[in-house]
Write a structure and sequence with these properties.
174 residues, alpha+beta, 3-stranded antiparallel β-sheet
Length: 174
């Protein structure tokens, strides 16, 4: 066997092991109301005492890592963009998020065939810890609002974040 074929075979084996190990690091979560399912990294822990039919909460490894999926009922705004803009204005107003700063503007995103808008922002929590949050706004059939959010206190979300895997594996069950 040539050295070139040996190197290629070794590379394929390493990639296979990495891919298989990534699969073993996540579990499939199906929403109890049967609206969606997705994979969640094993390091993220379901918080049943904070979850209900409207919100599903997971905590991550970091002190401020939080992932949640929220069903918001019927949205009365005339469009997805109007609803997302209204939500961001509420975050910015007094009584909203302290020192709210939009870091990434609203951008169109596809979540398993449903068009949404995503954005990123930072703010200070009640103890003045700076947190970053990436949020996806969706209006589902029937005009139901839905939000997916990932918060962290460690750093801005980059490629390879748990949210990318979650969105890639997202399935609507309606």
């Amino acid at each position: 066997m040539s050295l070139k074929k040996l190197k290629l075979g070794s590379l394929i084996t390493v990639l296979f092991v990495v891919l298989v190990s990534r699969v073993g690091q996540a579990f499939v979560f199906t929403d109890p109301t049967e609206l969606y399912s997705t994979t969640i990294w094993d390091q993220w822990v379901y918080q049943s005492h904070h979850s209900n039919d409207q919100i599903t909460v997971f905590y991550g490894e970091g002190d401020y890592d939080l992932l949640y999926f929220e069903s918001l009922g019927r949205v009365s705004d005339g469009s997805l963009e109007a609803w997302a803009q209204r939500a961001l204005r509420l975050y910015e107003e007094p009584g909203g998020l302290k020192d709210f700063q939009l870091e990434m503007p609203l951008t169109v995103i596809d979540v398993a065939g449903q068009t949404g808008l995503s954005c990123g922002y930072s703010y200070l929590d009640e103890r003045d810890n700076q947190l970053w949050e990436y949020r996806v706004f969706l209006i589902l059939p029937g005009g139901r609002g839905f939000s997916i959010a990932l918060s962290t206190g460690d750093a801005w979300l980059e490629d390879g974040s748990p949210l990318e895997d979650i969105l890639r594996q997202w399935r609507w069950l309606f």
